[in-house]
TrEMBL record:
Family: Belongs to the class-II aminoacyl-tRNA synthetase family.
Native source species: Psychrilyobacter piezotolerans
EC number of the protein: 6.1.1.14
Classification via NCBIfam families: glyS
Catalytic reactions on record: tRNA(Gly) + glycine + ATP = glycyl-tRNA(Gly) + AMP + diphosphate
Assembly: Tetramer of two alpha and two beta subunits.
Gene designation per UniProt: glyS
DALR anticodon binding domain mapped to chain residues: 588-682
Name of this chain's protein: Glycine--tRNA ligase beta subunit
């Protein structure tokens, strides 16, 4: 059989639609699985006014169930006289069967008593009413409401429920709403109500009533109609996926309309105008062939055709929005950006970490040290100026009025240039916010790079220093994003920078500022552990093997530049035909020596076998050149030197009994292996590498 459920309601917010449909599908699949009802497919459809669930080829009845419940062991269930004990009788009673119905089964642990039960599957038709009712009542939303005298909560008031099993009604009731065979068309271009005789009839009639229930179909219609009807030659409509998804979920039948606005507004930076159109009005901007904004836009109407009144109305609304933007912009230009810095003394970043102005002062101190460490003394003045002005736009009219918060950084750069600041500083102000989200672009000039790192490390270490550590989904200061940003920026910019040193600098400066509440050592270990996980995530995203990453981070997690060099070297060496075999041998070295607690002291006179003398000589030669090799960060030579000792190590294990009866010889051999293990694992803990 096939099932259709439609929950009709007042228009819900666009962002509620997909999560609700996902929950419908997931909850239904869970129910069917738990109740042993076979099905072919569960699909969902939706518009702002309806949530729809469709199940195809649902089994007519539950699968039968054979249950075998194991009880106590036979010798416990039966006494020495063969009679059932209290334990055996208690088990039979708990299973609802007679003692004579108990069975004896063989298990790997011996004989046990058991109860076998047969549960006959129920007809699916009898389960559907309660199942569908539970599905409706079980839906949750980010925000729910009550209405009228109803006790239940829902995103918006329910208006109707349609439920079908093939061509038959599935009867149930939710808070006085009885399921029926009635649906509704488009609010303005469809019948107020229409009756359906079956599932196919429903899909035919709902479409005839100008409702496109398939989300992907509505989305494709919007794109196709915009491309066909809304862009003239040399024009391009900017269709961002996030906005397209939102607009798709705002309408039941889309119809794009082109509107215009006064070209005088184009004196405002076009990013401001685009943000105003996209974020505030859900409009699609139109650009010319050079990427310049035209005084035109596309609004998607919830209707089947164009409307002059809709166009005029949207033009008036947008004009008011753009007037606000122009006013804010013109007011902000009346004074230099630097005048806003003083205002930041009155803007609290976090009550224990002080104002944004305090945060900037800490960031400047971090930056001064980083500039010296990284050799950017010549850029220091521009870097410090970038940090000083980096948050000044937060108290501008454009950002401070909360209308255009997405433009923070961009407006700072614009105002900096208009105030006479140099281009490097302006670009750094904009870039220090990058990356804003996963996959976003990264800062390119050193002013943006250093400012971004200093801002994030102060936030991260500061929050850990006062006990604001992310837990579960709670991360109000976006510390995970800050840590990922630091790792991505350092990696992308190939900075020869120790994260350990960076954290120490920030801790010391926060301590001098008198805001730390926790012990420095605890803050340091917590932050480094937190950073380590972000480093793993970034390197995994780059395609490196996880075991290689973990083996290197077990030895080195401070300098990302060196970590990546080691990873590339390990990948190159791992292509050697002897690599896997060598790793297995090195693990053997590590496993044998790991529990040795004695003094690590190799006495040459105690080396009796030729194979162990050869291994000792290899170790001594390696020791002699290891410091020079590592001093040059020549990881390839280091690992190839280890590879060259494969036969020597192999021969040692074939010829020498490590655990000799003579205690001195045994400890000498364990000392040799312990010393070998230590020197082998200076680039990476090779014991953590998986053999392929």
């Amino acid at each position: 059989m096939n099932i259709l459920l439609e929950i009709g309601m007042e228009e819900i917010p666009a962002r509620f639609l997909k999560p609700a449909l996902n929950d419908l599908e997931k909850n239904m699949k869970t129910y069917l699985k738990e109740n042993r009802i076979v099905f072919e497919e569960v699909k969902t459809y939706g518009t702002p006014r309806r949530l729809i669930l469709s199940i195809s080829n649902l089994a007519e009845k539950q699968e039968d169930l054979n249950i075998l419940n194991q009880g106590p062991a036979k010798h416990i269930a039966f006494g020495s006289n063969g009679d059932l004990t209290k334990a055996g009788m208690g088990f039979a009673k708990s299973q609802g069967i007679e003692a004579t119905d108990l069975e004896i089964i063989e298990t790997p642990k011996g004989e046990y008593i058991a109860a076998k039960k047969f549960v006959k599957g129920k007809e699916t038709q009898t389960l559907l009413p309660e199942a569908l009712k539970g599905l409706v009542e079980g839906l949750t939303f980010p925000k729910s409401m009550k209405w009228s005298d109803k006790k239940m909560k829902f995103a918006r008031p329910i208006q109707w429920i349609l439920a079908l099993a093939d061509n038959d009604l599935v009867e149930f009731e939710v808070e006085g709403y009885k399921s029926g065979l009635i649906s509704r068309g488009h609010r303005f271009f469809g019948e107020k109500e229409f009756a359906v005789t079956g599932i196919d009839d429903y899909f035919t009639k709902v479409r005839a009533n100008n409702v496109i229930v398939d989300i992907e179909e509505r989305k494709n219609m919007i794109v196709e109609m915009i491309n066909k009807n809304c862009a003239s030659a040399g024009e391009k409509v900017v269709i961002e996926n996030e906005l397209l998804d939102e607009v798709t979920n705002l309408v039941e039948y889309p119809y794009p309309i082109v509107g215009t606005f006064n070209s005088e507004f184009l004196e405002v930076p076009q990013d401001v105008l685009i943000i105003s159109m996209q974020v505030h009005q859900r409009y699609f901007p139109i650009l010319d062939s050079d990427g310049n904004l035209l005084p035109k836009f596309v609004v998607v109407r919830n209707g089947i055709d164009g409307s002059e009144n809709v166009r005029i109305g949207n033009e008036k609304v947008l004009s008011a929005r753009l007037s606000d933007a122009r006013f804010f912009y013109q007011e902000d230009l009346k004074k230099p950006l630097s005048e806003n810095v003083e205002k930041l003394k009155h803007v609290v970043f976090q009550k224990d970490l002080g104002t944004i102005h305090q945060k900037l002062e800490r960031s400047k101190k971090i930056a001064e040290k980083l500039a010296d460490i990284l050799g950017f003394e010549g850029n220091k003045s521009d870097i410090l100026r970038t940090i000083e002005l980096s948050k000044a736009d937060l108290v501008s009219n454009m950002i401070g009025e909360k209308e255009f918060t997405k433009l923070q950084g961009f407006m700072g750069a614009e105002y900096a240039l208009r105030s006479g600041e140099n281009e490097k500083v302006a670009k750094g102000i904009e870039e220090h916010y990058y990356p804003r989200y996963q996959g976003d672009k990264l800062p390119q000039n050193i002013e943006g790079v250093i400012t971004g790192i200093c801002d994030r490390i102060d936030t991260l270490v500061g929050c850990f220093g006062i006990g604001l550590i992310p837990s579960g989904s709670k991360d109000p200061f976006a510390l995970r994003r800050s840590a990922l940003g630091i790792v991505n920026i350092i990696s992308n910019s190939k900075l020869d920078l120790s994260i350990d040193e960076l954290v120490n600098i920030s801790i010391d400066i926060l301590e001098l500022d008198g805001v730390l509440k926790k012990e420095k050592e605890k803050v340091k270990s917590d932050v480094m552990e937190f950073m380590n996980q972000r480093i793993i995530n970034v390197l995994l995203d780059k395609g490196y093997r996880k075991d290689f990453i973990l083996s290197i981070l077990d030895v080195e997690n401070e300098n990302l530049l060196e970590v990546e060099k080691k990873l590339l070297t390990l990948e190159e060496v791992s292509s050697n035909e002897n690599f896997n075999e060598l790793v297995s041998l090195l693990k053997r070295v590590g496993n044998i020596s790991k529990d040795y607690k004695g003094t690590v002291n190799i006495t040459e006179e105690l080396l009796k076998e030729g194979a162990e003398k050869s291994l000792y000589n290899f170790y001594m030669e390696f020791m002699g050149i290891s410091e020079e090799i590592l001093g040059k960060n020549d990881y390839l030579t280091y690992l190839k030197t280890i590879l060259s000792g494969k036969e020597i190590i192999d021969n040692f294990f074939d010829s020498v009994m490590v655990m000799d009866e003579d205690e001195d010889i045994k400890n000498n051999r364990l000392s040799l292996l312990t010393s070998l293990n230590a020197i082998f694992n200076r680039v990476a803990n090779l014991n953590l590498i998986e053999t392929k």
